[in-house]
Amino acid sequence: MRDRCQECPLPHVNLKLGPGLSELSVARGSGKGSSSQQTVVATRAGILNHSSNRSKWWVEGNSRRYVPAPQESVIGVVSGRSGENWRVDIGAAHPASLDGLAFEGATKRNRPNLKVGSVLYARVSLAHKDMEPELECFDAQTRKADGFGELKGGFVTHCSLQMSRLLLDPKHFLLPLLGSRFPLDVAVGLNGRIWVSTKEAKQTIAVVRCVEAVDPDGGGMDEVSVKKFLGEMEL
């Protein structure tokens, strides 16, 4: 197998680096004439991918364990409480920390009443290899919830990390196709977790089965096959 090397152009005004990439300062020259230049290096093996406008870059590897990265949306499960913070399982090597004030409108007297087992849609606010990741449940710019927070009811299923990124692509066919068949609410975490809420249990089962069928780690089914697959279900 041949390796292919690609360059990630640093000058993009809104450049965001995802998993597998890191920005470093490289010294050039010595003495008074020395200078430093920013460069991006890969920290793991995989395929270099980017968004359509080339502002977001990441390395798609075959790792099955999620590695937290800043600004990524994840689905977590509250596993415990530590002082004023909650411990949240996001499928990474270490649990994440969620401050009690990291919610829209939260104050010391008015905080969410989370319990062990509560499901959250959160954003990674801090991720460093030598520290446990930190989460927050609001948009960093608007300070509004914008969909983040506790996910009540519904069902959580798992998929590959690659599949979660595919589902977050507006051009991917699966979620629009399912939404045309029956009403549903879906939250997709980049940590390979999907929260699904429908009116009937059989519809939730259909969503889970379709995700498993389309997942590159599973059947890798295309749109035509999924339509036929849905047609065989009693929905």
TrEMBL record:
One Pfam annotation reads RRP40_S1
Q: Which residues form the K Homology domain?
A: 154-201
Residue stretches making up the Exosome complex exonuclease Rrp40 N-terminal domain: 15-65
Q: Which GO terms describe its cellular component?
A: cytoplasmic exosome (RNase complex); nuclear exosome (RNase complex); nucleolus
**Which GO BP terms apply?**
CUT catabolic process; exonucleolytic trimming to generate mature 3'-end of 5.8S rRNA from tricistronic rRNA transcript (SSU-rRNA, 5.8S rRNA, LSU-rRNA); nuclear polyadenylation-dependent rRNA catabolic process; poly(A)-dependent snoRNA 3'-end processing; TRAMP-dependent tRNA surveillance pathway; U4 snRNA 3'-end processing
- Location within or outside the cell: Cytoplasm; Nucleus, Nucleolus
Q: Which UniProt keywords apply?
A: Cytoplasm, Exosome, Nucleus, RNA-binding, rRNA processing
Entry's Gene Ontology molecular function annotations: RNA binding
Q: What PANTHER family is this protein classified in? A: EXOSOME COMPLEX COMPONENT RRP40 (PTHR21321:SF1), PNAS-3 RELATED (PTHR21321)
Task: Identify its protein family.
Answer: Belongs to the RRP40 family.
Please give the name of this protein. Answer: Ribosomal RNA-processing protein 40
What is the source species?
A: Pisolithus tinctorius Marx 270
